Predict the structure.
Amino acid sequence: MKQSRMLIPTQKQDPTGAEALSHRMLLRAGYIQQVSAGTYAYLPLAYRVLEKIERIIKRAMDDSGACEMLVPEIIPAQFWQDSGRYDTYGDELFKLKNRHDTEFILGPTHEETFTELIKSSVKSYKKLPLNLYQIQSKFRDEDRPRYGLLRSREFLMLDSYSFSANEADLDQIYKEMRGAFEAIFNQIGLSYRGIIGDSGSMGGSDSMEFSAPAAVGEDTIVYSNDSEYAANLEMATNMFVPQKSHAEAQPLELVDTSDVKTIDQVTEFFDVHPDQVVKSLLYLADEQPVIVLTRGDQVANEAKLKHVLGADTLELATPAQAAELLDVQPGAVGPFDLSAETRVIADEYVQPMVNAIVGANQTGKHYQGFNPTRDLPDLEYADVRTVKEGDISPDGSGELQFTKGIEIGHIFKLGTRYSKVLGADILDENGRQQPIIMGCYGIGVSRLLSAVAEQQADENGLVWPTAIAPFDVHVIPTNVKKEEQAELATQITTSLEEAGFEVLVDDRKERAGVKFADSDLIGVPIRVTIGKKADEGIVEVKIRKTGETVETKVDDLQNTIKILAKEI
């Protein structure tokens, strides 16, 4: 392929507003171009990379027994209204109407669509299990799209949906999908971790997230420094080690604390450490009031809390809502004198506390001498805290450490979350109606470009793994005006292409320095430079990843490239 015939608008300087390394380099190297905030055109080089990623994905999915298909990107809003996600998904939904005023959405994901298709076409357990997948554009109206392809409003995604008649088949497909995803990421050349993930708005039970460690990652990976344990911060837990106090229990005493509201103010007023304070937060879970108690030095984990409550929505109550529901101002909320409809959940670390400080649920007042097991013996406990670095790993092996990561894939056991509400039933082997059991499996295809770039780019540009590089070899005659260089470039390109290599030849009438800089930006794994020794049949071969160079005769070039390619 002649470089002069391709659209590769390289840039010398970093584009304004591009913060992430991957965003800067993909723009500078002429792979993508912004069309509007959060939407990008994939230019020829990026499209070639995407095609190779898709081939790897399709091969692994097909090998696992999944079957490819395609559904519309425009979804009837009724599907999501029936499942309950139309309201709970939030403002990220792109909503539209046709000329007949019928409501639609642009698909951010397709659980409902696939469930409706199966509902109308599969009636017996004999037709299951099935695992169907597609690779398609998805749409989410991000409030603040950023980092290029890492958080955009339109993106390419693999989404796969399995349908089973029993849990055993779901478990088997879930296992197969984990293996397929690992094979995909290994072949692409990513460093990644499989971690415990949060199902979020998808619903369901078990889930595993695949995360690529990167400084720009918006997810926090929590892992043990001495075991295989790893989880998203939203789902991470630690070994609960209660600290026993031998202090004598003091009586519960009401104290006037008129201007004391924050934890810092409470600790200063009572002259205590934050771990002697119980923090009370009022939430609305599916619009029902819930008070969450954590130790003052710990932070409530809303993802865990949603799981404990089985809630679709969870919001921290505003001061006005607190005043309306509890007749109290924030800072004095507490677990006392509550209506029957107000549920109280305390973190495990609250239970062993002795003589703690806690809000009295009266404006301007706190209790001291709070002993939970004595004063609230029926209190409900659960792990609803956010772990900290240095906590003991939940398996008891090692301490928890944090690192940043990019979510690149996620697998879920959805169970009957969608089939029940949408009425997707089958007849089982006993002739009884039962909801289909589902799983969901997704990979951010376009996001993989950024994930690879974040991990492997350097200050000079992109560095592509051989499996997904847009070309295998970049042939550069330093001066195309010299006949011997131009002829040798044509000879080498033809020979390499006949041998099965994909070759980009820089036939532009540019200075050698410009060509070399653009070559580093583009990031093709191997560069062949045709220069002063062209008349001797000698060229220079450079490995982009290491910068290593070697001279070789043209007759030995293919073997040299094959040897070097194995070492990359």
Summary: The chain has a mean pLDDT of 94.
